[in-house]
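Run log, item B.
One chain of 150 residues. Sequence copied directly from the ordering sheet:
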Amino acid sequence: MRTLSIVLSLFLFSCSTITSDLTSEDLQSTTIIENLDKSKSELFSLTNEWLAKTFKDSKSVIEVKDEDRGKIVGKGYSEVMHTLGVYGVTYTLTIDVQDNRVRIKFENIGDYNYRALTNVGLLTKSKEEFSAMAKNLEAYIKNSSQDDKW
């Protein structure tokens, strides 16, 4: 039984690489979506719609919403599947819009206590999740004109 405990402990430890050498650049993910053929005002509105549909309570997520600057800043929380469980990941979400372009940044990626992530595997899975969210935003914007024709 003791051998099983040792083997299981080694397996769990090897499943998640932990390092403290991550930089602030490692703890961010940025995607720029271009060629959207929409004005800054349209993109700002569509981005707000996407936030409302993506997050359970977008009002609690959004901390800054400035249409003149084309900037939305908020605090997000996602559950990410990694190794043997689901982990809570927090982040700062910044969306900047200009004519025909949107930039979505996930920064300050941390655990549920807002401490910087030190688990490389979990960070990688989180970035995959953020990339999927950015693709979802892009699809939402590009398909928005189809929704108007009901």
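Observations after the first pass:
- Helices lie at 2-15, 40-54, 58-61, 120-142, 144-147.
- The radius of gyration is 18 Å.
Flagged for discussion on Thursday.
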